[in-house]
Write a structure and sequence with these properties.
The protein has twelve helices and eleven strands. The radius of gyration is 22 Å and the shape is globular. It has a seven-stranded parallel sheet with strand order 3-2-1-4-5-6-10, sandwiched between helices. With 395 residues, the protein is an alpha/beta fold. The relative contact order is 0.12.
């Protein structure tokens, strides 16, 4: 990992998939972390306990002390003024960077107000916080915003490292909200002359050393396949031979832009450490896999790891000729978020990223069969533990 000078960093999403791994790496570097976190809704665990438990899940030997980790109770719906007061109450007089990693992945129209409140207004609150830090602490706080490589919708081919403003044709309200956040960021940068970096990862998956996994993106596809298999096992018992006989609309010949967690965190933190990027300008980086795996290969390996057959990727015309079964319709509805990325050939430009991080510094991740097998096995093992627990509590 590239070394960085000690910093005081305010970060959101410390109990999330990406945010927790960023906090873990930042702590390893010796930074002082101020994490924003809520109480647990399920067991009422304190914000500090939630963050500590998440970090311990990554590495039980992680170095945590009151000197290097401060947890502030709240969330991204708190105003910049409210968050600043909490920072002052914790006797923090200087912040070098604000990292914003929180987002909701909801995409239904009924959730539009929540999407706006978290993904757009949450971004505004973080920007206002940065402005207040700069004005009242008389510092030069930098803002790092985690967006998505898909924030430009379908308009840009390839997706460039700039904000798409003309007819993006979004695949979902999630993409729309991330684009709106980027437009908001651009306005704030100009109005307040801020040092802002937008970080755009594609589809994040774990790394071999990771123990904390997500249940979104690629992993939701894995989970739905796993659940489908369990459905057959429960309904058919010993007569189930592994053949699920389910079709799914997908283009097996395109790439699925998966990027491992360690590649993402290494890239983000390396960019943050580049002296030439410490400027009161807007910087945008697509953090993607230049050698992404083929969807057909990913599907075959998933079926192999799950020991199932009969999962067939077909063109949409096939469904028109032979209407989908109720089970196929259900499976398709479950994957309404992921489906577009498995049916459209999305390409990216990352020239700006490679201008500042060479292949020698950050090599393209190797995502071969052995790597994906390890990732899949870890996830299915975790799901099996959940399944066994549910079975135990219902019997």
């Amino acid at each position: 990992m590239i070394e960085m000078k000690q910093k005081t960093i305010f970060i959101t999403g410390a109990t999330g998939f990406l945010g927790s791994h960023l906090v873990y790496e930042m702590l390893k570097m010796g930074h002082r972390i101020i994490a924003l976190s809520r109480k647990s809704k399920s067991n009422y665990a304190s914000p500090m306990l939630r963050v500590i438990e998440t970090l311990k899940a990554i590495d039980e030997n992680v170095n945590i002390s009151r000197n290097n980790l401060i947890v502030i109770e709240g969330d991204v719906t708190n105003s910049g003024d409210e968050l600043f007061k909490e920072i002052i109450n914790n006797q923090i007089d200087y912040i070098d960077e604000v990292w914003h990693c929180v987002a909701t992945f909801k995409i239904k129209e009924k959730d539009i107000e929540e999407i706006k409140r978290i993904n757009i207004e949450g971004c505004r609150n973080m920007l206002n916080l940065v402005v207040m830090i700069n004005q009242k602490m008389k510092s030069s706080c930098r803002y790092f915003h985690v967006s998505t490589a898909y924030s430009s919708g379908r308009k840009a081919k390839p997706i460039e490292e700039k904000i798409q403003k003309e007819n993006p044709n979004f695949r979902s309200l999630y993409e729309w909200s991330k684009n709106q956040s980027e437009l908001l960021i651009e306005t704030y940068q100009k109005d307040y002359n801020l040092d802002i970096t937008i970080l755009r990862p594609s589809i994040i998956i774990g790394a071999k050393k990771n123990k904390v996994l997500s249940r979104a993106g690629y992993y939701q596809f894995c989970e739905e396949l796993y659940t489908l298999k369990k459905r057959f096992e429960v309904n058919m018992g010993s007569s189930f031979d592994g053949n699920i006989d389910v079709r799914f609309i997908c283009n097996a010949n395109i790439c699925l832009n998966l990027v491992p967690m360690d590649y993402i965190t290494n890239s983000m933190l390396a960019l943050a450490n580049k002296k030439e990027l410490v400027t009161n300008e807007l910087k945008i980086f697509n953090i993607i896999n230049e050698n992404a795996p083929n969807i057909g290969e990913v599907q075959q390996l998933l079926c192999k790891d799950l020991r199932i057959s009969g999962f067939n990727m077909i063109e949409e015309e096939e469904f028109n000729k032979n209407p989908p079964s109720p089970l196929e319709k259900l499976f398709d509805r479950k994957l309404v978020f992921q489906a577009p990325y498995m049916r459209e050939d999305v390409r990216f430009s990352n020239e700006n990223f490679r201008k500042h991080l060479t292949f020698d510094e950050i090599p393209t991740p190797i995502m071969d069969e052995n790597f994906l097998h390890t990732i899949n096995e870890d996830f299915f093992k975790a799901l099996q533990e959940v399944f066994n627990l549910r079975l135990k509590t219902t019997t």
